[in-house]
Amino acid sequence: MSSAEHAPAGPDKRPIRLFRNLWSKIAAIPMILVSVGIFVGGTIWTIVYSFTDSGLLPRLNWVGLEQYERLWSTRRWLVSIENLAVFGIASLILTFALGFLLAALLDRKIRFEDTFRTILLYPFALSFIVTGLVWQWILNPEFGVQSIVRGLGFESFTFDPLYDSSKVMIGLLIAGLWQGTGLIMVILLAGLRGIDEDIWKASRVDGIPAWKTYVVIIIPMLKPVFITALVLVTSGIVKLYDLVVAMTSGGPGISSEVPAKFVYDTLFTRQNLGQGFAASTMMLVTVAIILIPWALLQFRGKKND
Question: Pfam families of this UniProt entry (predicted)?
Answer without folding.
Answer: BPD_transp_1
